[in-house]
Design brief:
The chain is α+β, with helices and mostly antiparallel strands and about 180 residues long. The protein has one domain: Electron Transport, Fmn-binding Protein, Chain A (Pnp Oxidase, Chain A). The chain contains 4 helices and 12 strands; from the N terminus they run ααβββββαβαββββββ. The chain starts with 14 loop residues before the first helix and ends with a strand.
């Protein structure tokens, strides 16, 4: 069983530091507001049910093999759909897709569930996950490991396909608001 865990079991935390208190959640959130991050829509499909969410907690892990890590709150519907399907798509948004970001973030009052897919034009990836056709880039992924990280699951994903545009400005989230960054 341990051969499937990549954690360094021979490493130990610094005992002197282990007794120091961590910051509170509000202090952490306030500090993270200054961490500029690319805005993505994470999508998945299990059978006929599809779901998505706006996320900034996406990171490249390695290029060879091609892997990403995506953090998803356990309390959102998309989390269970990713678990059920074993796949997801990371759709990196362009600046003109702010309304799509707001829809999938729950910032548009009457838009919930599958109605979010009414924003943007969507197709389907090889994994079955929804792909935003005009995204700056889309990463179709299979989940290879799931890590339980407090309120979130960390999905370690292997990238099966990438689609990208050659134009457009990146949409980022900084200090509580959406911004665009020219390429």
């Amino acid at each position: 069983m341990n051969d499937r865990i990549n954690q360094r079991l021979d490493w130990r935390p610094n005992e002197r530091l282990a007794g120091l208190p961590a910051v509170g959640a509000d202090e952490h959130r306030n500090g993270m507001r200054h961490f500029a991050a690319s805005v993505s829509i994470i999508t998945a499909r299990a059978g006929e049910q599809r779901a998505g969410l706006t996320a900034t907690a996406v990171c490249s892990v390695t290029a060879d093999p091609p892997r990403l890590v995506v953090f998803v709150n356990k309390n959102v519907v998309a989390n269970q759909i990713v678990l059920d399907s074993g796949a997801l798509c990371v759709n990196v948004l362009a600046s003109e897709q702010e309304e799509v970001a707001k829809a999938f973030a729950g910032m548009i009052k009457e838009v919930h569930g599958d109605a979010r897919f009414g924003y943007g034009v969507w197709s389907e990836a090889a994994t079955g996950a929804p792909v935003l056709d005009a995204a700056l880039s889309s990463f179709d992924c299979r989940v290879i490991k799931v890590f339980d990280e407090s309120t979130h699951n960390a999905f370690l994903c292997e990238v099966l396909a990438v689609r990208e545009r050659k134009d457009g400005e990146a949409l980022i989230y900084l200090n509580g608001g959406f911004r665009s960054i020219p390429q």
